[in-house]
């Protein structure tokens, strides 16, 4: 019987996939090092990317002006938003060009030029267009880009309540 | 994958001798805790370095939120500690790590002293080690002001008053550290600059010298 066993082993030599001492050491030491580095570095990485994962502030509505003051000629209105920037809390002033169209729909355009971000003005050159002082971009009363700028002016969300115009977050132009 | 990436680079740049020169050295039996457990005392230098690396890393991350300005400093520390995810942990690593560096460095110094490792030919390394010790104390002193709370303010006031008691040049040292006559806006910015740029730069240079010398001279022999 022992003879038989002997023959078996002679026929197929035991081939256990043994880990070498060096492999074992590099796995255990490498694993321990990775664990310790991870323990130290992961909190720091999470700390650094916190702004990406933070809950975004909801867009709020700001009361800007009485509905009756809005005309078919664009007018600039200033309004303050409440801004929490980390530890710095402020109320910066923004402006919107608010107009009534032929169907009495009120809309508000952002004054930021879509070319390179300068501040546009209405009718500064006497063409009844929005003009940008920096590179001569021009827009229609609806904000459609006529020259230089690649996109139409952004639009603020607008709602009218109890005779007042409220301005909300900025969105892409929906009129052109 | 790593192996083939390594080989690709090694074929072109022959980097193996570079790291082999740094990493391949024999650890004598008398400093290896696997042979004599009491040899763990030889680990304190390495532990000091390990915690120093954590200090540098956590400090780099803290400056993502911190501002060295008397209006905003406390508010920014409060924000990063309480509002940012893991803020308490990252600031805690830097805060408690600072104490731990001093502890480990003290134990390392004791080991070097009681094994007589400072003796010839290693006297220069002892001196560099002492310079590192004072740089660490300076880092601790300047870092303590940065949160800009009451403890920070008065600790700095007391510390600078001690420096002012040096004969003859004391008042000049005091004015230099204050950046004026009071602990104020200019003190905070200059302590920040010293804490974040000047002392870490000096520390890294001294550590490089410390490690080069110990590799050149080898660890001192058994008792």
Task: Describe the secondary-structure layout.
The complex is a heterodimer of chains A (176) and B (223).
Chain A: H1 2-11, H2 21-48, H3 50-53, E1 62-66, E2 75-80, E3 83-85, E4 88-90, E5 93-100, E6 106-109, E7 121-122, E8 130-131, E9 138-139, E10 145-147, E11 155-161, E12 164-171
Antiparallel strand pairs in A: 1-12, 2-5, 3-4, 5-6, 6-11, 7-8, 8-9, 9-10, 11-12
Chain B: H1 2-13, H2 16-23, H3 44-62, H4 73-82, H5 87-114, H6 123-145, H7 150-164, H8 170-178, H9 185-217
Helix pairs in contact in B: 3-5, 4-5, 5-6, 6-7, 6-9, 7-8
Principal-axis shape of chain A: elongated
Distance between the amino and carboxyl termini of chain B: 46 Å
List the helices and strands of chain B in order: HHHHHHHHH
Low-confidence stretches of chain A: none
Pfam families (chain B): Cytochrome_B
InterPro entries (chain B): Cyt_b/b6_N (IPR005797), Cytb/b6-like_sf (IPR027387), Cytochrome_b_N_euk/bac (IPR048259), Di-haem_cyt_TM (IPR016174)
Main location (chain B): membrane
Keywords (chain B): Cell membrane, Electron transport, Heme, Iron, Membrane, Metal-binding, Transmembrane, Transmembrane helix, Transport
Describe, in plain words, how this protein is organized in 3D.
- The complex is a heterodimer of chains A (176) and B (223).
- By secondary structure, chain A is an alpha+beta fold.
- Chain A contains three helices and twelve strands; from the N terminus they run αααββββββββββββ.
- In chain A, strands 1-12-11-6-5-2 form a six-stranded antiparallel sheet, with no helix packed on it.
- The longest helix of chain A has 28 residues, at 21-48.
- Chain B has 223 residues and is mainly α.
- Chain B has one domain (41-217): Cytochrome Bc1 Complex, Chain C.
- In chain B, 70% of the residues lie in helices and 0% in strands.
- Chain B has nine helices and no strands.
